[in-house]
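Incident log entry.

Two folding requests arrived from the same account within the same minute. Monitoring flagged them as a possible duplicate submission, but the sequences differ. Recording both here for audit purposes.

Request one:
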Amino acid sequence: MPEPRADYECWLPDEAATLALGAALAEALPREVKPAALIELEGDLGAGKTTLVRGLLRKLGSEEAVKSPTYTLVEPHVISGLNLYHFDFYRFSQPEEFLDAGLDEYFAQAGWCLVEWPARARPYLPACDWRIELAIAGSGRRAHLEATSERGRAWLTRLSIAATSSPPA
């Protein structure tokens, strides 16, 4: 039996495509997972990390405003019994701030943890399941999704994305 796919790359020409990728992620991830699924979101400021989370939340049925938790560190969302935690560690100057804020407790619970700027909390984050890198590329974005755990690879096989694989010539 072939090894499950470990990565996926696509071109996102506009905000609608980034929202659609977030919606596709919502479809691929299981509703019941413990410890929490850890999805690391990498990319420069303005790369579309929060837009991706907005697309995921909209697909799950949330009508809430979705903002980056840069100042609050975490924005919890409970949708149909699913706990989703959106973190942003951009403001951390030391990784120990993760522990000082007591954020490690979220990752032991059932649900999904989506983390912007995860490198600023290492080495205290648990191993991630998916790492998603968004990069500004011309007028759009390039998204690279890497499954970094066995369960992450299994979830990736359920991912269905209708985005083009490369920017227009």
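Request two (distinct sequence, not a duplicate):
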Amino acid sequence: MVLFSLIPLFRKSCPIRNYTFIAVITCVLCAVLTPSLTFAASGKTLYKKRCVSCHSLEAGVNGIGPSLYDIIGKAAGSEKGFGGYGGLKGARFVWTAEFLDSFIYDPKYFLGKLTPMMSRVKKAKERIAIIEFLKAQQ
């Protein structure tokens, strides 16, 4: 019903047609982008709480764990200068959001062997938030 009442606004003779179109596009973009930005903001807090004690976000700066700088799209176990954990050496996959999600949920199950990663994240919303935060850092 509402859709039919909007049709006159899209006619060429309607002076507010362009403004309506811009408003609709703006609303759609906000609806699409806001969840990612919200997740990234809460992901920063979660990253500081659960990850920062072992990982840095600076390229080449490794701690107990490897740097997570530009992690999405990086070959697993390829962080130069990090030799602290050999569990990913020789791994033949590239980190994607899906692989990170599985790894953060249960590293031992994901790798099939013990891992020094102590902070498992069981809640899906928290894993998504951390991953969105890491994506935003690239």
